[in-house]
Amino acid sequence: MTAELGQDDKRMNLRYAGNCRLCGAQLSAGTPAIYERATKTVRCVDCEVAVADASGVAGASARREYERRKDKREQRIRANHPKLGGLILALSDEPQSTRAWASGAAGEELLAQRLAELPDTFRMLHDRRIPGTRANIDHIVIGPTGVWIVDAKRHKGKRPAMHVEGGFLRPRVESLRIGGRDGNKLVAGVRSQVEVVSAAIERPEVRVQGVLCFLEADWPLIGGSFIVDQVDVVWPR
Question: Which residues on neighbouring strands pair with residue 212, listed in sequence order?
């Protein structure tokens, strides 16, 4: 089995010795490996297979991005502070932009566990890459009711809500707010994924529905789910 190489990946025989970014294995010069241009690091062929196997595992892409960012930060700090790098890493927190990828991966994993409870008439595909891009679809659920594109979002303690403007004299405009902040980019992202899947199916009679599922959010005790711009906004019930 071989993995689908990313846009920044190159399969090559190493000119210099190095270590696999994922497993730490020592790689001698001339060894076949994958060079990652974005991080200027390499991974071994065994880990290439592992990446391929993870293509259908919930949260795999987000987990890899978290590890990439974490490793890059550690390498940078140790290079800039050879003597104190370890201490700085031990006493400092990771940037929120890095932690967000780990949180997102955990959210996808939690939602996959809930989706596994669906009846046998449903089938799930997880962490599917969108061709020609670096983006992925968290979950595709296929069943008698159609195809459901489910984007998992972990916003702990924040309340998703529908905000409405206009009315009698102006056109009614609905938008998504998360803890009071604009969340319309998330809605647009799901709609884009729905279009990609609909085009791939090429069967207009098959319903393809987009869903934003917020985990650990501040949902009310009764009700709470709603629809914004044809996208269902729900919790993992």
Answer: 151, 233
**Lowest mean per-residue pLDDT among 102-111, 161-170, 207-216:** 161-170
Tell me if 117 sits within 8 A of 179, measured CB to CB: no
Q: Are 173 and 166 in contact (CB under 8 A)?
A: yes
Q: Is the pLDDT of residue 3 over 60?
A: no
> What six digits make up the tokens of 111?
């939602």
Q: Exposed, middle or buried, 119 (CB in 10 Å: 0-12/13-18/19+)?
A: exposed
What's residue 186's pLDDT? Answer: 94
Q: How far apart are CA 183 and CA 178, in angstroms?
A: 6
- Identify the DSSP state of 174: E
For 55, how many CA atoms within 13 A lie in the half-sphere containing its CB? Answer: 15
Dihedral sign, CA of 21, 25, 30, 32?
A: negative
Instruction: Identify the three-state secondary structure at position 14.
Output: coil
DSSP 33-102: EEEETTTTEEEEHHHHHHHHHGGGSTTHHHHHHHHHHHHHHHHHHHHH-TTTHHHHHHHSPPPHHHHHHH
129 pLDDT band, cuts 50/70/90, is: confident
pTM for the predicted model, two decimal places: 0.69
Cβ proximity of 20 and 11 under 8 Å? no
Radius of gyration of the chain (CA): 21
Secondary structure class of 2 (helix, strand, coil): coil
Q: How far is CA 130 from the centre of its chain?
A: 12
Nearest-angstrom CA–CA distance, 151 and 157:
18
Residue 73 has pLDDT above 70, yes or no: yes
**Sheet containing 208-215, strands listed edge to edge, beginning at the edge strand earlier in sequence:** 123-129, 136-143, 146-154, 208-215, 231-234, 226-228
